[in-house]
Amino acid sequence: MRSSRSGPEPGDRAAAVPARADGSTPTPPWAEPSEHIASELRTDTGTGLRSADAAARLESDGPNLLAESPPPTLAQRFLAQFTDPLVGLLLAAIVVSLLAWWSDGADEAPVESIVIALIVVANAVIGVWQEGRAIDAVAALRQLTSVQSTVIRDGRSRTLPSEQLVVGDLIVLAEGDAVSADARLSETHDLEVSEAPLTGESLPVAKSVLQSSPDAPVADRTCMVHSGTAVTKGRARAIVTATGDRTEVGRIAELLGSAEVDRTPLQRQIDQLS
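The chain above was modelled as a monomer; its predicted structure follows.
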């Protein structure tokens, strides 16, 4: 049974699935038949979304990308080089050396202060240069690994950049494809997916269209495919249910971003020594 299509729907699950009349929590997509998901997301399990609807949803929800913090400016990276306690010790040594040179009333230049200052500045320049190369390398790698997805829109198969995927899109998966969004499987043919980046499971997981328990953990949602995983065998069609930060890998990224990074024991010892 194919459902009708109409206007855009937001990408988050709470908005994509209308609240029930009694105010109860909507059933998650892995606990519902794919036909119901298609109806709730106003898509078609045969022809996918219309291009106009997909464009409206992309405008409403934003691209299928994880949120990124803007990189620090050059000035911020340079000033950050002076926050290390050991560098602070060297700066203090410059001040002491200048005071000693001033109190002695020597006519020659303060060689010690100049040498230490050159070392501090050189260290800062090298640190900024290394961070800049790392930022450029990450940007180049992100561009290099930009994933393409096969999507059915207006009844036609087309290849699009994965950041253009929207909730309700009907995606086509085949062996070797990377999954770029969380999606409910609507059709499978001997499908197996590697979920190691998401669940840590080393072996590929067999997938089917059969729904799972509402409280099933990610590893047991066999009717779902998730962003960040890869198809190792078979082929399938799936309806996108979450994109960007609303995917499971997006939630993990959010948790990692909010976690506090502690200094290593060696760094703490250097701080104490300084």
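The radius of gyration is 27 Å.
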